[in-house]
Amino acid sequence: MSTRTIPMTDALYGYYLGSSLREPEILVRLREATLKHPEAGMQISPEQGQFMRFLIRLIGAVHVLEIGTYTGYSALSVALALPENGRMVACERREEFTRIGRPFWREAGVDSRIDLRIGKAAETLQTMIEAGERGHYDFAFIDGDKKNYGVYYEQCLELIRPGGLIAIDNALWSGRLVDESLDDPASTAIRTLNVKIRDDVRVDMSLLPIGDGLMLARKL
Ligand code: CA
């Protein structure tokens, strides 16, 4: 029994995964392929991928956005949960990252659901807003460069429909935010956005201590 979130020891995490993880085999292989990459820490955890698939199905998402695709694990994870007519706009600045994931998207038969846009996400999203796509999307996953988190949040809030969901990764930033003296641009942006969302009357919100912290904001 506990009146607070229990600490996740290694042993408990092992139990947690062993007793609750459903990870499709193709995701296992993409995760393993990504682990060879020097920046593999940027990949989301498998239980977080499972939770996002759960959310996609829970809200019946069809049109989704992703900011920061990296090697494509989260994109594949979400695309697998989308219906046949589902579409994801996946924004990534560095095309070379996505080369790791794209063969897996094809093999899974979901590459036609993923519309990869290489470039600066803020520009891609602005173009979409100007093209009249406001309110068109059901779900957005923000996991791009942290210093622009505040910009991405505002853009996603425009692009999703009322009742749609924004999920923001790394909200707990490896636990570093407890150090109040930390003032690098990334840490500051995450800290500022967490508080902004807590106080934002435009959304319902909940911050989940899954993975590196997943902030959920539901547009009212
Ligand atoms: Ca992340």
SSE map:
Blueprint: H1 10-20, H2 25-35, H3 46-58, E1 63-67, H4 73-81, E2 87-92, H5 95-107, E3 114-118, H6 121-130, E4 137-142, H7 149-159, E5 160-168, H8 185-198, E6 203-208, E7 214-219
Parallel strand pairs: 1-2, 1-4, 2-3, 4-5
Antiparallel strand pairs: 5-7, 6-7
Helix pairs in contact: 2-5, 3-4, 6-7
The chain binds calcium ion.
The site of calcium ion (CA) has 5 residues, from loops.
Based on DSSP secondary structure assignment, what is the total number of beta strands?
A: 7
Strand-pairing-aware structural class: alpha/beta
The geometry reads as globular
Q: What fold name goes in the CATH topology slot?
A: Rossmann fold
For the sheet with most strands, the description reads:
7 strands, mixed
CATH superfamily: Vaccinia Virus protein VP39
Give the end-to-end Cα distance, rounded to a whole number of Å: 34 Å
Kindly give the count of domains: 1
Computed CA radius of gyration, to the nearest angstrom: 17 Å
Order of helices and strands: HHHEHEHEHEHEHEE
Report the helical percentage.
Answer: 40-55%
Q: Can you identify the CATH class?
A: Alpha Beta
Spans where pLDDT lies below 50 across 5 or more residues: none
**Total helix count?**
8
Q: Cofactors and ligands present?
A: calcium ion
| Sheet with most strands: strand arrangement | 3-2-1-4-5-7-6
**What is the overall pLDDT average?**
96
Instruction: Please report which band the strand proportion falls in: under 5%, 5-15%, 15-25%, 25-35%, 35-45% or over 45%.
Output: 15-25%
